[in-house]
Amino acid sequence: MSTVSxxxxxxxxxxxxxxxxxxxxxxxxxxxxxxxxxxxxSNADVSAIVIACAGRTFIAGAxxxxxxxxxxxxxxxxxxxxxxxxxxxxxxxxxxxxxGGGLEVALSCHYRVALSSAKIGLPEVKLGILPGAxxxxxxxxxxxxxxxxxxxxSGRHISxxxxxxxxxxxxxxxxxxLDAAIAxxxxxxxxxxxxxxxxxxxxxxxxPEFFDGFRKSVAKQTRGYFAPERCIxxxxxxxxxxxxxxxxxxxxxxxxxxxxxxxxxLQHMFFAERQVSRIPGIDKxxxxxxxxxxxxxxAGTMGGGIAMNFANVGIPVTILEVEQAALDRGLxxxxxxxxxxxxxxxxxxEQVEGLMSQFTGTLSYDDLSDCDLIIEAVFETMDIKKKVFxxxxxxxxxGAILASNTSYLDVDAIAACTKRPEDVLGLHFFSPxxxxxxxxxxxxxxxxxxxxxxxxxxxxxxxxxxxxxxxCHGFIGNRMLSPYGREAALSVIEGAKPEEVDAALFNFGMPxxxxxxSDMAGLDIGYLNRQGIGRENYETKAYDWMDRLVEAGxxxxxxxxxxxxxDEGSRTPKPDPEVxxxxxxxxxxxxxERKPISADAIVERCMMALINEGAKILGExxxxxxxxxxxxxxxxxxxxxxxxxxxxxxxHLGLKTVYAKICEYADTVGDRWWKPAPLLKELAxxxxxxxxxxxxxxx
Length: 699
Prior knowledge:
Layout: E1 4-9, E2 12-17, H1 27-41, E3 48-53, H2 76-85, E4 90-94, E5 97-99, H3 101-108, E6 111-115, E7 119-121, H4 135-143, H5 145-154, E8 158-159, H6 160-166, E9 171-173, H7 177-191, H8 208-222, H9 227-240, H10 243-258, H11 261-275, E10 294-297, H12 301-311, E11 317-320, H13 324-343, H14 349-356, E12 359-362, E13 373-376, H15 382-395, E14 401-404, H16 411-415, E15 424-429, E16 438-442, H17 449-461, E17 465-469, H18 477-494, H19 498-508, H20 514-521, H21 523-533, H22 540-551, H23 577-589, H24 599-619, H25 626-637, H26 645-653, H27 655-669, H28 678-685, H29 690-697
Parallel strand pairs: 2-3, 3-4, 4-6, 5-7, 6-9, 10-11, 10-13, 11-12, 13-14, 14-15, 16-17
Antiparallel strand pairs: 1-2, 7-8, 15-16
Helix pairs in contact: 1-2, 2-3, 4-5, 4-9, 5-9, 9-10, 11-25, 11-26, 12-13, 13-14, 18-22, 18-24, 19-24, 22-23, 24-27, 25-26, 26-27, 27-28
């Protein structure tokens, strides 16, 4: 069946794109639109044209199956120029989403009619590129440069109502879209074509100071990214150049983005997030369990945040606490979170009350007997977890899924406390749990396929990126965090100042440096963990100076002093001479001659440690794919998306280079912590990449 068809009704040609599931701009669609323009331009029976789409959406963008392949003509730029050049009015009928190339097609039409529920957007920046078929030149002309900058640099979806206010949409309707578009097309015959590319912008209103102001306003969000600045330059071209010259500038800047490594990295992340739900041994025929009510044990910060995820999608929650005061306090925090959203205009007062009605508080385990899924979010000690699961085994109904929010502990040992280990797994949420996108789904040895499948689907329901991990200390993310933190701390004891380590990794793209992160989390957490595992199980040189800080009462931001000092009420870290004195004393005690360490050297050792541990995790089968590790680190630990995650970054450097560097560290400082991962050695010697491993081994 053709993806583009045409029928004529009372002098109006209706072109229908039908390319399921999202009417992507594949070669057949581009070719079909181009052919129809040529045929209809000379058809005397046609006075106007409507471009509409079958199915659930207007053209939602490029065909991702064509990513990385040589483009086949006709190119989209040529197609939209053909549409815009038509002497007969062309009307776009928009429902669902008109995104990327889909919006560029709509902008090349002379008029646009949309359902009020529709959304538009130019999200190319999220893939490290920019709209390349005139989007950066047409949108500023019809919506104004300020609105165009907002849309193109953010890549966000824009509601039909907002788009109409910008002038992008001419008419909104509640239903009967095609009839409305045909009626509009008939009226447009007398008006004639109105070409977006021929609209003008008063450049006097949008001088350099306007664009400089915009750059400053988005500097924090766009830090480190290559494409946003090129997007801004494209809009500047729309303001200052004739349309044809602006189109040439757009093409030049598009090529700059397309050939930059960030485009490949961001596109890697795009596909990686869509791959995580593909689990070997699980398919659409694997049974799922229905989740109608969820129980949460613990109303603290984590428990309340976890509960909000379910209430937000209409799944009722029962929260258990041991004391009424703790329960009231926890539910009070949840209410404040919702009221804060209401104060920002994101929720109405009625919606806040509706969400709070989804919560039921209790002090009795027996009230969890009707829950389909129960998640514990109690203190991170094995004894407490085991007591909780022993009690859950008593009260939970048959078929209920029992989950631990543990971030480090052995889920197999927890499952063994029950008579139903097949119903047990880990659901590791990240703090703040109602905000962070990542969810590590920890499959225990006896977790049943249907329990795992249910939770993989549930992650999507509650709008999380769910990554399946195996059982080991720290799973994927926290296990990798350990060597990263070790090398950062060793850099300090060997000669760098804490603020130099933080600056190096911040400039690499991390949201904050590891010393600042330690202060925010609380230095006492790592201290207690080290006390528990014993000095023989960690690199003492890395952490003795931190332990002295804790023993001196410097537990981090919460007490106003940690690696850094903090003014009262401030979260801004300040270097402290007292800390440097302790660091220098510990360096001398360890027999270390302190030497300056460059920012590049700090980044290299931290990244190499991260990559090597990731390769061990992958080789041990803790992660199914290298790309799953990237998804964890980008979504849970702030790894810069434009570098594609640590494993993609390793591929970018070349695994032979990475392996050689890790061997060099092993030769220099010993292989206790730097023994190369067997999988890394194997791939490097074979001239392969982690991406090759994914293609060959992952399901």
